[in-house]
Design goal:
By secondary structure, the protein is an alpha/beta fold. It has 8 helices and 7 strands; from the N terminus they run H-E-H-E-E-H-E-H-E-H-E-H-H-H-E. A 7-stranded parallel sheet has the order 3-2-1-4-5-6-7, with helices on both faces. Helix 5 links the parallel strand 5 and strand 6. Helix 2 packs across helix 8 and helix 3 packs parallel to helix 4. The longest helix has 29 residues. It is globular.
């Protein structure tokens, strides 16, 4: 059943960019914003296998500064700017095993993918957004940024913690200028990336996929709800945050983790 927000097309007339929008959480967000009436642009490093795309696709590797500039130019020329920016790209690229398993290259790659690509894209697109004196930026972070698991995601967690700090600082700078900046931090979510991590852990540990997931969840402190999130659940939160209903929200980090982080 569609929410009332979708029924009323509360994003009609808005243009949104969702990075990493061809699969997983990014695809779910792109679909949700489109259902709410937004014109949606998606990016990824490779052309998606799906040929009948519902959104406007621009190929771009956001770890490459020149491609970021080209993306920004294409958006400005074709769409005249943005109202909503969802910085969603990211993922675990470095090996597990703790500090001794990580090389300088591992650290640099993780920071490029999960932090610097977002900063670079914001810098390229913000001047036009500021001209409108309104807009919303959502940074998709991770529970790992506030609750790292050293064995599985040390470098990733550090990069996401950096993203959280950057997002908070940017929100303070842009709030007086009419731009809202928020962070969404999913926990374990049923995406191809997460499925791959579970399968790899299962293969190296001699466990079934379900046993591997339960052990990974336990190492992260457990998930009181006992399951992963679905990408559509994360997308619903993002839709609310970019909608007019959330017009007084900025600077916060919203955990969507099934209760994993044990804080009040």
């Amino acid at each position: 059943m569609e929410s009332n927000h979708n029924q009323y097309q509360d994003l009609a007339g808005k243009t949104a960019l969702v990075t990493g929008g061809t699969k997983g959480i990014g695809k779910a967000i792109a679909d949700k914003l489109s259902q709410a009436g937004a014109r949606v642009i998606i990016t990824a490093r490779q052309q998606p296998e799906e040929t009948n795309l519902a959104h406007h696709f621009i190929e771009a590797d956001l770890t490459q500064p020149q491609q970021v500039d080209q993306l920004a130019q294409a958006i400005h020329e074709t769409f005249g700017g943005l109202d909503i920016l969802i910085d969603n790209i990211g993922g675990v690229t470095a090996p597990g095993g703790g500090f001794s398993s990580l090389t300088d290259q591992d650290w640099e790659q993780e920071l490029q993918f999960n932090l610097l690509a977002t900063i670079r894209l914001d810098r390229a697109l913000l001047p036009r957004i500021l001209e409108k004196k309104s807009g919303v930026i959502i940074h998709i972070s991770s529970v790992a940024g506030v609750k790292p698991v050293w064995y599985h995601n040390l470098a990733y967690a550090v990069s996401k913690a950096g993203l959280n700090a950057y997002s908070k600082a940017l929100s303070n700078e842009l709030a007086p200028k009419g731009i809202r900046v928020l962070t969404v931090s999913p926990g374990a979510t049923n995406t191809p990336l997460m499925q791959g991590l579970v399968q790899n852990f299962a293969a190296t540990s001699g466990l079934s996929a379900e046993e591997a997931f339960q052990r990974m969840a336990a190492q992260a402190g457990g998930i009181p709800m006992g399951r992963m999130a679905e990408p559509e659940e994360v997308a619903s939160l993002v839709h609310f945050l970019v909608s007019p209903a959330a017009s007084y929200l900025t600077g916060a980090n919203y955990l969507i983790d099934g209760g994993t982080v044990p804080v009040v």
